[in-house]
Amino acid sequence: KNETIVHVGDIFDSSSPHNSLRLEIAKYLKEFKQVYLLQGNHDISKRQGCAIQYLSAFENIHIIENIEEIEIENKKCLFLPYKDSCKEEYEALTGKYDFIFTHVMSDKCQFQDEGLSLNLKGCYIWGHHHIRESYSDKNSNINEIIGVPIPTRHLEQNQEHRIIKIVDDGGRENISVPQTFTYRDIDFGIEIQDEYKNDILNIINAPSYPAALEMYKDYYIRRAGITIKRTAMENDSENDIDNKNLSIDEKFVIYSKKESLSKEIVECCLQNLSNIVRENL
Question: What's the angle, vertex CA 67, arms to CA 111 and CA 91, rounded to 5?
Fold first, then answer.
């Protein structure tokens, strides 16, 4: 409780989190000495604004929606939250800091052309990207991509999840985060074992989406991970993609199966679709 917490964005996975989640987060964070929360891309929408803004009602919690310089325990820190069209603004910044906390994508790990090439000097602590990595850049800066502390997407479970502790001399220690669930591939029709109750399931070889959702209605189903049995897919007509009862991600999954897209491409595209839908809510 006497520690200062920096969260580098996306404390929620949606700009419209359930109210019970809002309450749990508030109860937890209000206990710390100081909390700095960067605005992430999942925290905002055009219609509803910033989902974490309500936490600023607590004196110990500071919400960062714009560029800010803050000294924390004698460390000079720069905060770069997620903002639409910030590339030119952020890449023009110069200066030297002990730590640079960001919720943007490094050009080293970018998908398409969303990455930024920053010219600041200091130790970078990156949010936004879900896979952890540590490297030195062209300016000999240390870069720490924290990665997600728990898996939030398929393919993220195959890494050591962590938070980073910054010690008094400016060094960093990795703290491993215990995992309470994982993702599992389950063949349609197989009875779920009790120890998988909290896991997120990919249903393989289902005859249809409704059948998979109905059979495993008491479990956590990853809708994008439902794989339709090949014989069923071969009987599908092209018009099935236009079925108004399907969500946009379900339509894309049908399309991806017909086009034999890889899991990695499907994951990236589903994430982008989710961002587009959320930003237009």
Answer: 45
